[in-house]
Amino acid sequence: MDDDIPYLLLTPGPLTTSRGVRQSMLRDYCTWDADYNQLVADLRNRLVTLAGGGDRYTAVLMQGSGTFSVEATIGSVIPPGGKLLVISNGAYGRRMEQIARRLSIDHSECWLGETQVADPADVRQALQDDPAITHVAIVHCETSTGMLNPIESIGAVCRQMGKVYIVDAMSSFGGIPMSMESVGADFMISSANKCIQGVPGFGFVIADRDRLSETKGWARSLSLDLYDQWSEMESKGGKWRYTSPTHVVRAFVQAMDELDAEGGVAARHQRYSENHRRLVDGVAALGITALLPAAIQSPIITSFLYPDVDGFAFDDFYQALKQRRFVIYPGKVSDAQTFRIGNIGHVFPEDIDQLVAAIAEVIGELTVASSR
Ligand SMILES: *Cc1c(COP(=O)(O)O)cnc(C)c1O
Questions:
Q1: How many CA atoms lie within 13 A of 331 on its CB side?
Q2: Same-domain pairing of 187 and 219
Q3: Is residue 151 part of a domain?
Q4: Which residues form the Aminotransferase class V domain (predicted)?
Q5: For the segment 9-36, what is each residue's pLDDT rounded down to a tens digit?
Q6: Ligand 1 proximity of 171 Cβ (cutoff 6 Å)
Q7: Does residue 268 fall inside a structural domain?
Q8: Residue 4 pLDDT grade (very low, low, confident, very high; cuts 50, 70, 90)
Q9: Ligand 1 atom 3, closest CA
Q10: Where are the alpha helices (DSSP H) in the chain?
Q11: Which CATH number characterizes residue 351's domain?
Q12: Which of 7, 190, 247, 252 could form a disulfide with 325, with the two C-beta atoms 3.0–4.6 Å apart?
């Protein structure tokens, strides 16, 4: 843990960033000439490369938090008369349905509940049952629980059936190996402050160039018009339509450099997996178990059931850990008492060992207090 930060954020996101990422923001940029815009143009190319590369794909950056990029995509790529199927099993899937509803986009939702992973056979059935569906959207890592949906096999179904496929890979892109090709995605969405470990301020969409090209004029919003934003960046050498989050972009470039230096996505995935393994094994010894079975659990974030300690209160637990320099997340599951701990960010296995030791201390104190 750097000694210049008050605590580790185990809450993606925002998440813990490196000192290098934070320091890279200590200068201003003009946005009218090539020195900044070249940074953006290079960044877009690097994102496409990170998503497997190829001329077929392009990248658009969008101001705002990750949800803005999800809303920009859903609001821009479904034509009038199109219909969206949202497959959801958590709060972020639900949010896509909410976006479609708010924008009056014809849609249906296949709601699975919070602990049921998506099944490609069910998606095929849903598409056969409703031929009006033109687009399918799903979340890869449902950050509300930590569940990983099988986006590759669902992508194969979408390709076979000729549906446009939108993947919210917000919390997994850059941390779990995947490519546009392997997923079969037409649009894949992520943001600066998840696995690439930048600071919050913009999101991005990797898109099939042909699919994106046909969406001109479809957007239901001016500022969240994905096509217009893309077309400006393409034709004006990396220029954003409206004020660009320059410091955030610069920090993101630094974060991309650090991802490369770490050894790329495979190496980062390994670190997150090791963080996850030490966390789950460590707290299991303290009687704290994960909500989901290992087979559908991501290495990104884990939901844990409250321990069986009399009078356990999340707020006390949270404050006691924060005093020990660890910030965790409340749960986001409606039918179980859970809290969440993220493994992503500038967080290393030794940090997780210290976290487990801190949790042991806190549980010990709570147990003594409850037996008094
Ligand atoms: C973080 C996240 C988002 C976006 O959330 P914001 O708070 O808008 O950044 C969307 N989907 C998933 C799966 C996420 O993890």
A1: 18
A2: yes
A3: yes
A4: 32-324
A5: 999 789 999 999 999 999 999 888 888 9
A6: yes
A7: yes
A8: confident
A9: 66
A10: 19-23, 34-50, 66-77, 91-102, 120-129, 151-160, 180-183, 209-213, 226-235, 246-262, 264-284, 314-323, 349-371
A11: 3.90.1150.10
A12: 7
Do 278 and 249 fall into the same domain?
no
- Interval 144-186: pLDDT, tens: 999 999 999 999 999 999 999 999 999 999 999 999 999 999 9
pLDDT at 1: 67
Residue 2 lies in a domain: no
**SS3 label, residue 15:** coil
Contact (CB, 8 A) for 215 and 78:
no
Per-residue pLDDT, 33: 82
pLDDT above 80 for 341: yes
> What pLDDT was estimated at residue 98?
98
Do 254 and 285 belong to one domain? no
Specify the number of domains making up the chain. Answer: 2
For ligand 1, atom 2: residue with the closest CA = 170
358 burial class (0-12, 13-18, 19+ CB within 10 angstroms)? middle
Q: Tell me: do 250 and 268 sit in the same domain.
A: no
* 209 token code pair: 């160039």
Q: How far is the CA of 11 from the centre of ligand 1 (A)?
A: 12
Q: Is 73 in the pocket of ligand 1 (CB under 6 A)?
A: no
Containing domain of residue 336, as a range?
Answer: 8-13+264-370
